[in-house]
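**User:**
Make up any protein.

**Assistant:**
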Amino acid sequence: MKSSGHWLVSPWRRSVVAAGAGALPVLAFPAPSLWWFAHVALVPWILLARSAPTGRRAAYDGWWGGFGFMFAMHHWLLPNLHVFTFVLAALLGALWAPWGWLVRRLLGGVPSRGRAGAALVVLPSGWLAVELVRSWEALGGPWGVLGASQWQVGAALRLASVGGTWLLSFLLVVLNVAVAVLLVVRRARVPAVAALVVTGVVTSAAWAGMPLPDADGRARIAVVQPGVVSGPDSADRRFDREERLTRELAGRDVDLVVWGESSVGFDLGARPDLTRRLAALSRATGAELLVNVDARRSDQPGIYKSSVLVGPDGLTGDRYDKMRLVPFGEYVPARSLLGWATSVGEAAGEDRRRGSEQVLMDAGSGLRIGPMVCFESAFPDMSRHLAGDGADVLLAQSSTSTFQQSWAPGQHASLAALRAAETGRPMVHATLTGVSAIHGPDGARVGPWLGTDASAAQVYDVPLARGTTPYVRFGDWPPQAALLVLGVWGAAEGIRTLRLRRRPAPAPHAPHARTAHGSPARPGR
C-alpha cells in the first residue's frame, strides 16, 4: 500500500508544495492583514522540510519555500520588473536553504526531547539570521519581516519597544515550531507546551508591565496628499494641486506641513520661483513645510531625492539626501552585470545619488524632526538612530503611486506603527497618492488613514513623548543573540561529531572456548 505522501516523491511536485507553503505567511500582512495567521503560517513549511528524505532535499524545501514567500510578498512588482521578479524571488529564497536543512536536522525522523527542545531555540534563531542577511539594502531591505505582520497588535507593539521587530519575528517562529512539534512529535510535547506558555507569559508581561511612553505635549501636523497626477507636465500640475491643498490649511494653527516623496520635481536651487511660492505657503499657514525634491541638482552632478525644509523666508538650509536607495527602482546593483533589467522592466535608467548621513531638523517652536524617504522606513536602525539623536517626530515621505492598486501602499503604511512603537516616538508616513498614516509613540493609529483614493490636506493632533525605549538603548540585540545561539549550537554539534569519530569501535565479541566434549571452558579448570 502506498503511503499518503507518495505523491511528494516527485521533486517538482514537492517544490511546488514548498513554494505554496512558503507563501502562506503573506496572508498575515496587509492587505489581508490576518495577523493571527502568522502564529501558525509556517507550520506546513516546517512539516514538509522535516519529512525530507535527505538534508539536501530539505535545503531545497527551504529554498523553494523562501521563493514562495518572497514572490508572494513582492508580487506587486510584476507589472514593473516582469520576469526579473521571479529572479529576485529565487535569489532571496536561497537564503532559506540552510534553514530548511536545520529543520530536518533537528525535527527529522523521531527527534528526542533534547533535539526538539533545541529546535524551539535554534530554528527561530536561524530564521532571524535569514532576516538579518536579507535586510541588507542591496538584497531589498527588511520588507516583509515576519514580525511586521503584528503591526496592529497592542501587545506585540509593546514587545517591539523592547527588541524591535526582530523580537516579534523570533517569538512567532517559536510559536510555529511549537505547534509543529505538538502535531508530530509526541515525546516532545512537554517542551513544546512549555514554549507556548513562556511565549504567552512574555507577551502578557510586556502588555501589563512595559511602561507607555511619557506624554510630552502635542504637535499639529498636516499631511498634504495630492493623489494621482499623471500625463504631460505632471510635475507642474502636481505642484499646483499641492499648493492649492496647502492653502486650505491657513488659519488652522498647524506646526508643520509635510508633502510626500517626489512632491517637487524640480531643483529648488534652479527654480527660485517655486521657492518663493513655498515660502508664501509657509507664511500663509504659519508653519514650515517639509517637501521632497526629486531632481537633478544644480550645485553638483546627479539626481537626488531630498527632504528639504522651507520656512517663511525660503529655504532654511536643512536638507536630507536619501541614503538607502530602492534596488532597481532607484539604482541597479552591479549595473554592468544586471543592467539588462532595464530592457525587461522599469528599472532605473540612471542611478540616483546617495546622501552621506542622517539629519535632524528644527521645524520651529523646538520641534525636532527626523526625515526618511520611502523604503527607508523599513529599516529599524534608521529610525532608532534618529530617536537616539533627539528627534521628537519621525517622518517618512513616500510614494507608491506606481503600485496604486496593489498591497504595497498598505504594507508600507503599516511600517509606521512598528517604527513608532520601537522608538517611543510618533511617526508620520506622508505619501503622494496614499496610504498616508500617522501613529503615536505607542504605535497606535492617530486619526484617519488617507487611502489611495484621497486627495486632501489632513491635520493631525500628534501626541509627543519623551524617554528612551529599551530597543533604542540596546539596539538590535535579538539578531545578535540569535547569531550567538547558532554559534553555540554549531560548536556543540561539531564537538559531538568529533567525539563520535574518535570513539573506538567496540571489540568484536569473542566466542567462549569449548572443551573436547563441547562444553564451555570454565575459569580455573
Notes: The chain is about 45% helix and 15% strand. The mean pLDDT is 90. The longest helix spans residues 154-184.
